[in-house]
Design a protein that fits this description.
The chain is an alpha+beta fold. Helices cover about 25% and strands about 20% of the residues. The protein has eleven helices and 18 strands. The strands form six sheets. Strands 1-2-3-4-5-11-6 form a seven-stranded antiparallel beta sheet, covered by helices on one side. A three-stranded antiparallel beta sheet has the order 12-14-15. The radius of gyration is 24 Å and the shape is globular.
Length: about 475
């Protein structure tokens, strides 16, 4: 090596660098107790802005810090991958004056696009946009309650990729974008059912998985390190393992979405990890992708989870148009009354389900122009994500509990994998009218009501739309 200056500079930089410059997070330290009650406990500092102290009216911005001691990790799925939001979720207790408080909370630590609105701000704006208290209070019950939130501050500045990785230097505008491959995660069984087996998936709309599409060119945005603390500790909808409770949760989810839509917002990321259950009440989480329907701003990053994404959101383009003389299907009108009666609070009585008030007059999506405009997410996309969520729960989760033979479970999961083979396969599975009826043989009898409902729901939607 002839460049001795660079070599010396490298080692001296490592020797004299501060801990946070080497990648360590000084706001997250091992628990101060010499004998922690739980394994791998951490004391995490959350920087926050006091509610009501920040605004465009010139009010003073008041900031503070709060310290929490973790109890256990609730979720860290995908946090270790190179390209992710690095989301980690802990159950924790707040430390006040050196004493651990009895109430448990949940801390969510993740990296968010720097130009996106923060989750607590979205929560406040969504409630403020509610046209009446009659709508606002039910919506509040279906959302998690943020206690503290703010970007992580290290060394007097916000911890983000622009300052940490690039020392404040933006990438050149003419830089070639990164190539990414569109791959929907496909849960598969170790064994498959032979095609000649009577329980094997078959029929129209079921196509074997195909080769993935060519790479897409996307631009990755600067990320900011963010933390938010929620009051409630919840379990995901995946923890429900019966047909009845799953249908009740789906009904509550549609009711909660109708309230969000009536406030003029769309969620844009409905998934199995974002539908939570607290004391029998559905809570819709992860609002960081939520957006006002009137917001025309665009972000090149596709929002949503691939497995549960609507067809149009997956393509990021309008693929359907409203049939002449037909009206869009409202959020809660996707399923007929025959199965809608099942949608009630988990463990509750019929007739007690969340219903949108009369103040929600504009909850239905409006599709007016025959010329496809730039792609905009609308309420039907949220509702279709609930459809894909029920498909996943029916064929992949509940199947494991309601199964009476190993072969049947494999067949149900095989059917699910076929339905998610590619974009075109997903589109065909959703549009085809007999995807489930053609495969009744591989479904458990207890799952048949959900399959009938799913098929009817897709038929109701597709009956009003035409491919464009």
């Amino acid at each position: 090596m002839t460049d001795h200056y660079t070599l010396a500079h490298f080692f001296l930089s490592q020797m004299y660098a501060k801990s946070h410059e080497l990648g360590y997070d000084p706001t997250m330290k091992p628990a101060a107790d010499k004998r922690p009650r739980y394994r791998n406990q951490w004391d995490i500092t959350v920087h926050y802005v006091e509610e009501g102290s920040a605004g465009d009216d010139g009010t003073e911005v008041k900031t503070g810090t709060a310290t929490f001691r973790t109890i256990q990790v609730l979720s860290n799925v995908g946090a270790e991958t190179i390209r992710s939001r690095g989301t980690r979720v802990w159950q924790a207790r707040q430390i006040i004056n050196g004493k651990e408080q009895p109430e448990t909370v949940v801390i969510k630590d993740y990296w968010v696009d720097s130009d996106r609105m923060r989750e607590a701000t979205i929560w406040r704006n969504m409630l403020q946009d509610a046209p009446s208290d009659e709508l606002r209070e039910p919506l509040k019950r279906h959302l998690l309650t943020p206690l503290y939130s703010g970007d992580v501050v290290i060394g007097g500045q916000i911890d983000n990729t622009l300052s940490l990785l690039r020392r404040g230097t933006a990438l050149p505008k003419d830089l070639e974008p990164f190539a990414t491959v569109h791959l929907a995660p496909l849960p598969t069984s170790e064994e498959t059912v032979p095609e000649e087996h009577p329980l094997a998936p078959q029929g129209a709309g079921i196509i074997p998985p195909q080769a993935p599409p060519p790479p897409e060119m996307m631009v990755f945005h600067d990320k900011s390190h963010h933390r938010i603390v929620f009051k409630e500790t919840a379990k995901t909808i995946e923890n429900l393992n019966t047909v009845g409770t799953t249908l009740q949760a789906a009904g509550q989810t549609l009711g909660a979405l109708s309230l969000i839509h009536a406030c003029g917002w769309v969620h844009r990321d409905i998934s199995s990890g974002n539908i939570l259950i607290v004391d029998g009440i559905v809570k819709i989480a992860d609002l960081e992708y939520a957006k006002r329907m009137s917001d025309s701003s665009s972000n090149s990053s596709r929002s949503g989870t691939a497995t549960f994404m609507s067809i149009e959101a997956d393509y990021h383009a309008h693929k359907f148009r409203l049939k002449e003389g037909r009206k869009p299907v409202p959020t809660q009108g996707l399923f007929s009354s025959k199965y809608g009666q099942r949608f009630r609070p988990i463990g509750g009585k019929r007739g007690s389900q969340t219903r949108p008030s009369k103040a929600q007059g504009n909850a239905s999506p409006q599709i007016a122009t025959p010329v496809p405009p730039p792609f905009r997410y609308n309420p039907l996309h949220d509702v279709e994500s609930v459809w894909w969520l029920l498909v996943y729960l029916t064929l992949y989760r509940i199947a494991e509990v309601a199964d009476d033979t190993n072969v049947r479970r494999q067949a149900q999961r095989q059917l699910y994998s076929h339905m998610l083979g590619s974009r075109e396969v997903r589109r065909g599975a959703f549009m085809e009218r007999d995807t489930f009826s053609a495969n009744k043989g591989c479904l458990h009898d207890r799952l048949q009501p959900i399959a009938d409902m799913l098929e009817e729901a897709s038929n109701n939607t597709c009956g009003t739309l035409l491919p464009s």
